[in-house]
Each structure stands twice: as C-alpha cells, then as structure tokens.
Amino acid sequence: MKFLQSSGWSAAAWGLLISALFFTQVVTAQDDGDDTIKSVPLRTHSLSQPYLDQDLQSRWFDFGGDTVVRADQYIRLTPDRQHQAGWVWSRLPLTATNWEIEWEFKIHGQGNLYGDGMALWITKQRALPGPVFGAADNFEGLGLFFDTYKNNRPGVVFPYVSAMLGDGQKSYDHAHDGKEHELAGCSARGLRGSNIPTKAKLTYFQENYLQLDLQYKNVDTWVQCFSVSNVTLPQVAYLGFTAHCGELSDNHDLISVEAKNLYSTNPTRPGPGKGGKARKLRAKKQEGGGWGWFFMKMVLFVVACGGGYIGFVAWKQKNQRSRF
Fold first, then answer.
1. Rounded Cα distance, 322 and 318, in Å
2. Are 270 and 279 in contact (CB under 8 A)?
3. Greatest CA separation for the chain
4. Cys-Cys with 74: which of 114, 140, 231, 253 at CB 3.0–4.6 Å?
5. Which CATH architecture has domain 37-264?
6. Which residues cross the membrane (predicted)?
7. 89 CB contacts (<8 Å, ≥6 apart)?
8. Which 3 state secondary structure label does DSSP give 315?
9. Distance, CA of 179 to CA of 156 (rounded, Å)
10. Which residue, 112, 121, 170, is CA-closest to 146?
C-alpha cells in the first residue's frame, strides 16, 4: 500500500489495472493452450532398444535381407559394403485413420562416394525385396525416399527426400531420382553424417494432408520438408523401412520408431502446416469457448467492477478526511 500511495495513482486506478492484467492473462492462457490434437501410442508399430525379445524375435516386426540387429545401438539395414539390401516390416497393418510416425535414423560411412539411400513405406504389400531402395517396384501406397546419390536431376541438392504415391502400376523413375511421379520433396544438405540425432516425423490426416518434418540441423529444431493437401492412403497398409547399396555403399541405421494414433477433439479438422493451427484457433474463437468461458468472462467483469468501486470508495473517504 505504501507503494500505491507514493506512485500518485488512485486506488481506483490500481484496482482497474490489476483486474485488467488478470483478465488479459487468462485470455492469453486460453489461446496458448488451444491444441486439440491428441495422441495414443501404437505399440504395434513402434521400435526401441533392445528391439528383440528373449527369444531373439520381435513380436511386431519382421527383419530380412542383409539387416543386422545390434540390440544396444541400432538396426542396420545395410552395412557400408557394396550390393547390400535390408528391410524391416510391420507384421500387422496400420489401420489408424490419422497417425504420426517419428523415427530416428543415421546414414553414414567411410567413403567420399556413397549411396544409394533408404526409404519408409506405407503400402498394401510387405516384405517384398526389389530395386527401389531395397523394396519392390509398382507398389500401392506411399514411398518416402531418402536418396543420397544423384543420378540425373539438375538443380537439385542431395541428399534429397521425396515422396511418391503408387497405384500398383507406376514405376519409380530411377533415371531421374523419382522426378516423374514425385508427390513432393525437399533437399536436405547435411542430413547424411549429421552430428546430431537425425529424425523424421510423418503426419497423416486421412483425405486431408500429409506432412513431413526433419531434424538434422539442430536438436529439437524441426524443418518442414513438405505438406500436401488432399492425400489419400490405403486404409489398410503395412509400415516398412528398407535400404539399398549398389556400386556405392553406406551404413543405413534405424535407431527407433515411435508411432501414434491421432485424433482431434475439435470438429474442425486441422489443415497442413501452420495454416491448420490458425484455422483451429479461428474456429475456437468463433465458438467463444462455450458457457464455461462465458461464465469466466462474467466473473472477471464483476471482479473488475468491484475493484474499481472499492478503490473509488477508498479515494472518496480519503478526500473527506483531508477536508478536516
């Protein structure tokens, strides 16, 4: 109270100011917490150390090709040797309508020349070896390619990450690094041999959007590679990871996989990228937060008025005492 008197402000003004600050803080907290996307872990499509059970098997995944599992470190899809190919495929299909898959991986080796790369798959087929980064061509579903060797694609910096939607008929365009049927992609200079944990995060909302984010520059700093609207993937598809080395080679390591089932508590579906979040915020503001938020605003209004009235009474009594 001593500070209030020395500042020259009336008690009424301070009462109104404090009430206004409190009101502003509550409004801000409501906006910052407007994240309506919830998640449920999908154990059937996640992988973590030691990867295998006591019988040296995995309950949820199959391994094949040249894949080597080192329980305390990684699943090595290919070693740094020529003509290697390896794969990991889920045993159960991914049937979630909306999902997010985040995985940590590492592409590295000793040579100055290296290749070819690795891929993530969400396809109707599973565990079929082939020429597309270790998996079969003419796939049906999504192929996501981390290509480290440039064949013939002028003006593009490698490593290059690209996505392709296969319909069972289209072939991957090896000659031009997938350009012919590319859905979206981005250059990721520094992804190979990065000195921080390299991660990718793929988010899918059915018939709405598909988005890929990468972490390879700084820890906890995600870079959006692409975000594509109106994407439809098979409702029943398997999750796979493959890698391939030809005349050139590299280590392609899978460190961990974390899969989640996503759902929104907001009837307004999220859109891709930042725009989706903005739309959710606008929808929330239009709804006004319901009766609970209306009641809170009324309480704050009463508190503000009460603070102002008490301050006015105190000021009036002070002026009356000063007359005598």
1. 6
2. yes
3. 102
4. 253
5. Sandwich (2.60)
6. 291-315
7. 61, 62, 64, 121, 126, 127, 238, 239, 240, 241
8. helix
9. 11
10. 121
Element (H, E) at 184: strand 182-187
Backbone angles phi, psi at 180, to 5 degrees: -60, -40
Q: Cα separations (Å) of 158 from 91, 103, 161, 232? A: 33, 21, 8, 28
Buried b (16+ CB within 10 A) or exposed e, 86-100: bbbbbeebbebebbb
**63/86 Cα distance (integer angstroms):** 8
> Six-digit token pair at 228?
């594509």
Q: What is the rounded average pLDDT of the residues 52-78?
A: 95
pLDDT at 158 over 80: yes
For the chain, the domains span 2-35+282-323, 37-264
pLDDT tops 70 at residue 286: no
More confident site: 69 or 30: 69
The burial class, CB within 10 Å (0-12 / 13-18 / 19+), for 185 is: buried
Strands 223-229 and 74-78: unpaired
Nearest to 240 by CA among 140, 135, 83, 132: 135
Residue 105 pLDDT greater than 70, yes or no: yes
As a dihedral over the C-alpha atoms of residue 46, residue 47, residue 53, residue 56, rounded to 10 degrees, the angle is 130
Which residue matches tokens 């891929």? 119
**Residue 293 φ/ψ, nearest 5 degrees:** -70, -35
